[in-house]
């Protein structure tokens, strides 16, 4: 596989993102190019670890039916992962800002919470939950984006790891809350509904995780800050 | 035309600066330096500020060439910071405001850094990396607030570097971070260290513990103190640049501004410059005069607040050790 017939879509934070065809299917190639600002040893280490993390988390999520992009090929040498490309998709960020109405958003947020609850119940920590890393993908090629016609898809598992501790799950929720607050004016309502869904789908763990979440939150928000 | 005087003393730097709109009139500073192997404590730091503040005030007024009557507003650091040093500087600011019969404004220290950085560099709407001994935050402006996108979930990056300097018993003059930076320039051997990024948040306490526990052994095994400084800097700065890049991509911004004491580290600036170049963004940074805590930054932020109509009741002009960057309504920005 080479990227000759691929089109550069954008330069994300960690990788250059290309679109192309892989074995006849629309495909998304994620090239974690060399970051020359950091030490080569550190760069190689981080890149390998992230590629491995991403592939593992995808496989693990798939096993319980959480929708993620399909994994086509992992090429460590050239630092590229080939993934399924979704033709009709929207990031949650765009959806919140441009499409949603309050009722629809409430249901969607509960569904997102359920999804995260399910992911945590199999001990997958995403590590970078933001509204840019949750996609709405159309089930049918209908006009416009209505959340009931869409599947929720989790992407960008580069910072993921497997961990059963409540602490890491709490941090995962905290990262999401913070990302929502800094991006969206309706963040508080969305997050409250996410927790509602989370509770529903992670019955035996949510209590402990929510306690940890509150603890992490108080560490961040009220921590003494000097100088 | 508005003239503002700013008093800063939230940590071990004592600074007073005077600004007339976009013209810097003076910016004087003294630093309390603790012995090698020790950090600065609130009591001793406050004592230092008490002993020096009137001399610094006189110097700032003399250098500016203005008389107290010409000042329009007295600004001081309300927080965040260490209680005792904050309080003793606030007392002086309150006193002169009454003697001169001028309005008084309490300024958020972090906002002071951001507004100073924007003023000096001309950055318009940047992602701000605020890195100092007490704070590590990645900030972007949106909807009348400076919003915190990422931050440390435990200790600040400057605290991590300062405390490692104590392990090596480096001098605290002019600052422990500066001495680590000089040592790191001579380091050659890279030691892999824990690397801890969680989304846009970072954590440094694990790295510090790792270094504290192993430094002696590593030095016996052939690593020099210079190698350790180099490896530590490379690791923690890579974390900061990575999370800043995440914020850039998430927000879709093309500007990065580095502020705070650690921001004058040239290696951090260099790494950030390379990252920015790779994605067509622009970096803005300042030198130690404006990066490290100073009085002028408080005057500058206070000036912006005053011009946009901000006034404080006398009884609100206290201090607070905990004062979040996103608690302040940024009424002076029009975007």
Automatic annotation (TrEMBL), chain A:
Question: Per UniProt, what is one Pfam family of this protein?
Answer: Kdo
Q: What class of enzyme is it?
A: transferase
Signal peptide feature range = none
Q: Which InterPro entries does the record cross-reference, listed alphabetically?
A: Bud32, Kinase-like_dom_sf, Prot_kinase_dom, Tyr_kinase_AS
The chemistry this enzyme catalyses reads: L-seryl-[protein] + ATP = O-phospho-L-seryl-[protein] + ADP + H(+); L-threonyl-[protein] + ATP = O-phospho-L-threonyl-[protein] + ADP + H(+)
Coiled coil, from the record: none
Q: Which part of the chain is the Protein kinase domain? A: 3-227
Superkingdom of origin: Eukaryota
Q: What is its EC number?
A: 2.7.11.1
Which UniProt keyword terms apply here?
ATP-binding, Kinase, Nucleotide-binding, Serine/threonine-protein kinase, Transferase, tRNA processing
Cellular component GO terms, alphabetical? EKC/KEOPS complex
The Swiss-Prot or TrEMBL record annotates one GO molecular function as: ATP binding
Q: What GO biological process terms are annotated to this protein in UniProt? A: tRNA processing
Q: Which family does it belong to?
A: Belongs to the protein kinase superfamily. BUD32 family.
Q: What is this protein called?
A: non-specific serine/threonine protein kinase
Species annotation: Cryptolaemus montrouzieri
Automatic annotation (TrEMBL), chain B:
Q: Which residues bind a divalent metal cation?
A: 109, 113, 130, 293
The EC number on file is 2.3.1.234
Provide a Gene Ontology MF annotation, just one: tRNA N(6)-L-threonylcarbamoyladenine synthase activity
The record's remark on the cofactor is: Binds 1 divalent metal cation per subunit.
Give the binding site residues for substrate: 130-134, 162, 177, 181, 265
Enzyme kind, highest EC tier: transferase
GO process terms (BP): tRNA threonylcarbamoyladenosine modification
Pinpoint the Gcp-like domain residues: 30-299
Q: Which reaction does it catalyse?
A: L-threonylcarbamoyladenylate + adenosine(37) in tRNA = N(6)-L-threonylcarbamoyladenosine(37) in tRNA + AMP + H(+)
Cellular component (GO) terms are: cytoplasm; EKC/KEOPS complex; nucleus
Which Pfam families does the annotation name? TsaD
Cofactors (names): a divalent metal cation
This protein's superkingdom?
Eukaryota
PROSITE patterns on file: GLYCOPROTEASE
Is Acyltransferase one of the keywords UniProt gives this record? yes
UniProt entry tagged with the keyword Transferase = yes
NCBIfam families to which the protein is assigned, alphabetical: arch_KAE1, gcp_kae1
Family that this chain belongs to = Belongs to the KAE1 / TsaD family.
The protein's name is N(6)-L-threonylcarbamoyladenine synthase
